[in-house]
Specification:
This protein is an alpha/beta fold. The protein is built from 36 helices and 25 strands. The strands form four sheets. It has an eight-stranded mixed β-sheet, with helices on both faces. Strands 10, 11, 14, 15, 16, 17, 18 and 19 form an eight-stranded mixed β-sheet that branches. Strands 1, 2, 3, 4, 5, 6 and 7 form a seven-stranded antiparallel β-sheet that branches. It starts with 7 loop residues before the first helix and ends in an 8-residue tail after the last helix.
């Protein structure tokens, strides 16, 4: 049996406690020694050094370290200390990557820290028959705790006594209104968390009333502790981009090894002639290896992602982990919490029925006199209030009551003025058994009883009014997910000396009904529609009732024809196989637990879908962490949810997710452009070095020159490509399959063909400089200078080709101002290397006749018309 389904006497016997006197001090100390402190525990934190070392386990970082070792070998075998610049530069890039990685971590730790902060600092308990205040960490199972309005609840427990008790549990259950609590409530063993009305939970607070309960669980055994445990157990996921870059790194590593081994083997068998020593052969292999490794790729991808993070900040989205930028763009399913995410997390009065006129009216700021009177009477019969500061409205008290107060305020009837004009003479407080509240006010010289509460409770106490019509309307509006209240009144001659339900709440006249709802955010409907057009499935996961959730989902377009809405109890009865078979057609999950949310997320993930999860409560945190990308609400979201999420929406706006998806898709496209651009260069370098060795037994490009091109000449335009604007049609495409490679859609073939073109152009430049040079003294250094110029400038011009699959003249050749500046700077730096004598000597370059520079420029410009021609002929496939 569970604490909420067990009989109270039996539960007290098991806990060895007395409801009247509580535990003795000795018994409490013994229990504390046995079960430990009432606090959350976390995994042992990794030290800063351990986190830093972890950054070097990434395959791309390993490739960079290999490049550094190779460059260091080159420097050791050289005679110029400047050659050590290469490995030092690469190591600086690696260290910078590691520092950036460490700064993005510690998500789970922050989530657990926030959970700890939600614990109540003190608790009022009975110890040995005396009421004492103790630290909440010293509360133990068996303690009798006293609570009242405003108190935080220090531990989970079963109610023994309750008086009009309501608990604010939205962070735990997702419900937007306080939950009514009743010590005598009978709860089934399979009841979901939100329906356990005889229990109170750690980390929640008392919104109304008072009570006394026996502690049944503390620390990690509480519901809040279970969530902390889920956060501990949930492993950090690897993003699709990380998977693809890791695979690319491995492939590049294998290619490097094959190239080195192949060239070294050919050299040993005398393919390059007898003049080359083993060390010379090794250095040739090293040159090819350096040319095959895109040393700047990890750093540039990191920079592009960081740029994307800054762009998303302007779209009201804060990214905690850099790779999550791209992951969001890959999302194919968005599992969204309802309360505070799809809805406004604020009860709002939307409908009223006036019995006198027999009319139903939408609540506005200019309602009829009859409805205004109904709102006035309703506002007088409330304990809640609002505080208005400019356009900001703060709700103080029960949300159902404050919604009535706000509706009256909007109709020109502030509650403060009403209370002053129509003073309260007596009251009968709300009681969860009666589900009623009554006040007696002096209105226009008459003593008027006003009763507000559930229609089924008021109807039997009325002697006048169209009860049957009101009953039909009450049922109809309830089916539309409205929370209904009835208002009744009567005039009395005297105020009873001791007002109670028996001498006040009878012979009433039904005045009308009011209906309220936590309304959908108005912009969400369009956002859901855009998601559907983009091939993204939207699923609602909530702790609210299934009828309410389904009505909201249908209104927003989430629940379509043939879609289902199920409860957490129904979900628990489904096997994993059944869930996998039906998950496509279930768009609403109601009354679910934190474990249920994780199960739903993983059911979609098992179908190779990329899942984004949105939420704001503590109960959302484990699923936020389990999802491929978690999105927390920045305004209404708890610190726990923000700590567990990859992204925080600073405006709590569901449409921001759509903007972020669009931005994420654009960023991924830009990363593909960058990778294709850089690898095209590397292929061109490999082919240039390989065929020059095979044909002429000479190396056309030195390692220093290759590194300059890879890190500087290519690097600046690559970063600028990462800032390319998102293409207009990106949200008209379906999400990318999870297993789709970086080179899908023909990109791999394009990169190889472009690399062949770069290699051919560079070899032509090398041959012209080495063997012709306009009749001047031809030598290897002249050939190397031509090869360096052609390859470097080719990449600068080609960067404009990579902006889009559309023609440059259609998108505007110079509309990316960042690329314009980067290209100009790359050209200037390249020319400085060539024309400043000391620098040219350091790079192994020499001066050429003027016409040779023009030839080099002409060769470098060739990719522009060639790629434009392929685009015009439709041969340049769209990189989806």
């Amino acid at each position: 049996m569970t604490a909420y389904s067990e009989e109270v006497p039996e539960l007290l016997r098991q806990l060895q406690t007395d409801p009247a006197t509580g535990l003795t001090e000795s018994a409490a100390k013994a229990t504390l020694a046995k079960v430990g402190k009432n606090q959350l525990t976390a995994k042992k934190k990794k030290g800063m050094l351990a986190r830093f070392i972890d950054q070097f386990k990434d395959p791309m970082i390993i490739v960079l370290l290999v490049a550094a070792v190779i460059s260091f070998v080159v420097a050791l075998n050289g005679h110029d200390s400047k050659e050590f610049f290469e490995p030092v530069l690469i190591l600086l890039i690696v260290v910078a990557n590691a520092i950036m990685g460490v700064s993005q971590e510690s998500k789970a730790e922050k989530a657990l820290d926030a959970l700890k902060e939600m614990s109540a600092p003190h608790a009022r308990v009975l110890r040995g028959g005396a009421e004492v205040v103790i630290d909440s960490v010293d509360v133990v199972p068996g303690d009798i705790v006293l609570i009242e309005a405003g108190d935080f609840i220090p531990a989970d427990g079963r109610l023994i006594v309750s008086a009009s008790l309501r608990s604010e549990e939205s962070a735990l259950t997702g419900e937007s209104v306080p939950t009514e609590k009743e010590a005598d409530a009978i709860v089934k063993e399979d009841a979901p968390l939100g329906d356990r009305h005889n229990m109170v939970y750690s980390g929640c607070s008392v919104a109304y009333g008072r009570g006394r309960y026996v502690v049944t669980a503390t620390g990690m055994q509480t519901e809040m502790g279970r969530i902390a445990g889920l956060l501990n157990d949930e492993q950090e996921g690897v993003t699709p981009l990380q998977q693809k870059l890791a695979k690319l790194s491995k492939v590049l590593g294998i290619i490097v090894l094959i190239i080195c081994a192949g060239i070294f083997g050919l050299g040993l068998f005398g393919f390059f002639g007898s003049d080359m020593s083993i060390i010379d052969i090794f250095m040739v292999a090293v040159s090819l290896a350096v040319s095959a490794i895109p040393e700047g790729l990890p750093a540039i991808v990191t920079i592009v992602l960081a740029i994307g993070v800054q762009r998303m900040v302007k779209k009201h989205a804060i990214i905690r982990r850099l790779p999550a930028v791209e992951t969001l763009g890959s999302a194919s399913v968005i599992c969204s919490d309802k309360t505070g995410t799809l809805t406004q997390n604020r009860m709002t009065l939307v409908q009223a029925y006036d019995d006198a006129t027999d009319k139903t009216e939408a609540i506005t700021g200019t309602n009829s006199q009859e409805v205004r009177k109904l709102l006035m009477y309703g506002a007088l019969c409330t304990d809640g209030s609002i505080a208005v500061e400019g356009d900001s409205v703060k709700h103080l008290g029960d949300p159902t009551e404050t919604s009535i107060v706000l509706a009256a305020y909007n109709n020109g009837m502030p509650k403060e003025e009403l209370m002053e004009k129509y003073p309260r003479l007596a009251e009968v407080p709300f009681d969860s058994d009666r589900k009623l509240m009554s006040v007696i006010c002096e209105i226009d010289g008459k003593k008027v009883v006003i009763t507000k509460g559930a229609f089924d409770s008021i109807a039997p106490r009325c002697i006048a009014g169209n009860i049957e019509k009101a009953r039909v309307l009450n049922d109809e509006m309830s089916a539309q997910a409205l929370r209904m209240l009835a208002v009744a009144y009567k005039v009395v001659d005297e105020v009873p000396q001791k007002p109670n339900s028996e001498n006040v709440e009878f012979d009433l006249i039904l005045m009308g009904l009011v209906g309220m709802i936590d309304p959908p955010r108005p912009e969400v409907r369009d956002a859901v529609k855009v998601c559907r057009e983009a091939g993204i499935k939207t699923v609602m996961i909530t702790g609210d009732h299934v009828v309410t959730a389904s009505a909201i989902a249908k209104d927003l377009g989430i629940q379509q024809e043939n879609d289902r809405a199920i409860t957490g109890t129904e979900l628990a009865q489904m096997s994993e196989t059944e869930l996998d078979e039906q998950v496509d057609h279930i768009t609403v999950y109601a009354r679910v637990s934190p474990e249920d949310k994780i199960r739903i997320v993983k059911a979609w993930q098992s179908r190779n879908e990329i899942v984004a999860m949105t939420g704001d409560g503590v109960n959302d945190a484990p699923a936020l962490k389990a999802a491929d990308i978690g999105c927390a609400m920045g305004i209404t979201g708890t610190d726990v949810a923000k700590g567990a999420a990859d992204m925080t929406l600073t405006d709590d706006n569901f449409t921001t997710i759509v903007d972020a998806v669009k931005e994420g898709r654009g960023i991924y496209d830009n990363i593909r452009k960058v990778i294709g651009y850089l690898l095209g260069t590397n292929i061109g370098e490999v082919l240039t070095v390989l065929f020059a060795i095979l044909i002429w037994k000479e190396t056309p490009l030195l390692s220093m020159q290759l590194l300059w091109i890879n890190l500087v000449t290519d690097g600046l335009p690559a970063i600028a490509l990462g800032r390319e604007a998102v293409e207009d049609d990106v949200m008209k495409q379906n999400p990318r399959p999870k297993n789709e490679g970086i080179f899908a859609g023909g990109m791999g073939v394009q990169v190889v063909l472009q690399g062949i073109m770069f290699g051919a152009l560079t070899l032509v430049g090398f041959a012209l400089g080495h063997f012709w040079n306009m009749g001047s003294l031809a030598d290897a250094q002249s050939g190397e200078t031509m090869a360096f110029l052609v390859l470097a400038l080719t990449q600068v011009f080609h960067s404009f080709n990579m902006r889009s699959n559309k023609s440059l003249f259609k998108i505007g050749p110079f509309t990316n101002k960042h690329l314009n500046g980067a290209a100009a700077l790359s050209i200037v730096l390249t020319l400085l290397v060539v024309f400043i004598p000391p620098v040219a000597v350091a790079f192994g370059l020499t001066q050429l006749p003027p016409l040779m520079y023009l030839i080099a420029l002409a060769l470098a410009f060739v990719p522009i018309p060639v790629i434009e021609l392929t685009k015009a002929l439709g041969l340049h496939k769209k990189m989806k």
